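Notes to self, H15 domain-containing protein:
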Amino acid sequence: MSEVAPAPAAPAPAAPAKAAKKKAAKPSKKSGPAAGELILKAVSASKERRGVSYVALKKSLAAHGYDVEHKSNHIRRAIKSLVEKGALVQTKGTGASGSFVLSRQARRCQEARLRQKAQSS
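result:
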């Protein structure tokens, strides 16, 4: 029994160029305020003298319909960036954990906005 190598197959004729696939439309960004804005609102609404803890912030955001379970990284990143920018002051803890209060500068800006809204109405 001798094995015979099969003859090399002739190259297939060139296939016609395929039409480019259309990319699926990306879903648009969800409307609504960003996590940082919601955090600032929650901290400013709080009457706690020592500030609002990270856990209390998450509870507040969840009460207002923010998906805290799936977006916890967004919340942590927003808190850290607000502390770096100077909008929030961290009274206890490190990183995103601890308690947070509005900075004096942010408080003044917020009061000025409220005055402008009152004058325009």
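- The mean pLDDT is 83.
- The two ends are 101 Å apart (CA to CA).
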